[in-house]
Amino acid sequence: MLDSYRNLIDELLGTPSILRTMLDGTSAPPPEALTLIDELRARDEGMLDRLNTMLATQGAILAPLVNDSTAENAALALSGDPNELLSRFDHARGEIVSLLMNLTIRDWGRSAIGDDGQETWLSDEVENHVDFEEDQLVRITNAMTAG
Predict the structure, then answer these.
(1) How many angstroms separate the CA atoms of 53 and 121, rounded?
(2) Which domains does the chain have, with CATH numbers?
(3) Inter-residue contact 102 to 63 (CB < 8 Å)
(4) Nearest to residue 140, comparing CAs of 39, 24, 14, 3?
(5) Distance of alpha carbon 45 from alpha carbon 61, whole angstroms
(6) Nearest CA among 33, 32, 62 for reference residue 125
(7) Are residues 60 and 119 in contact, defined by beta-carbon separation less than 8 angstroms?
(8) Residue 63 has pLDDT above 60, yes or no
(9) Model confidence over 24-53: pLDDT tens digits?
(10) Secondary structure element (H or E) that encloses residue 112, with its range
(11) Nearest to 131 by CA among 43, 2, 16
(12) What tens digit of pLDDT does each residue of 68-105 get?
């Protein structure tokens, strides 16, 4: 069980390097790719709030996880400054990874009521986040090759 949690954290830790490799040497990444990266950042921030809610209140009712990308961040994504965008993503990712690395086994089993009305566990929320990220990385790759 502990190994599967470590694997989830490792996957989350690997994404910033993957994104930097994708953008390395690209003077003008496609705006669509930058927007997708910003969506990952916004989702990380939303996930951090969601996980903190689960840790604070056993059985909490979770609000839907939405992309709360602000107008400022969307403008940054569209301005084409990949370094600033990656810096913001790194910060959001660091917050999530820091939280996860300090969880106990019991914490990973915390439950809440998801926005679908079903019981969900913290470990499932993190796994769903990793699955979303994997899909998003495919979209970013497609945007980079199409652009």
Answers:
(1) 12
(2) 2-146 (1.20.120.450)
(3) no
(4) 39
(5) 18
(6) 62
(7) no
(8) yes
(9) 877 788 888 888 999 999 999 999 999 999
(10) strand 111-113
(11) 43
(12) 555 455 555 556 578 888 999 999 999 999 999 999 99
φ, ψ dihedrals at 118, nearest 5°: -100, 155
Helices and strands (DSSP H and E) totals, the chain = 6, 3
Q: Which helix (H) or strand (E) holds 61?
A: strand 60-61
Considering the chain, what is the average pLDDT of its residues? 89
Q: 3-state DSSP helix/strand/coil percent for the chain, to nearest 5?
A: 70, 5, 20
Amino acid at 24: D
* Amino acid at position 9, single letter: I
What distances in angstroms separate CA 10 from CA 16, 37, 131, one per listed residue? 11, 19, 13
pTM value is 0.89
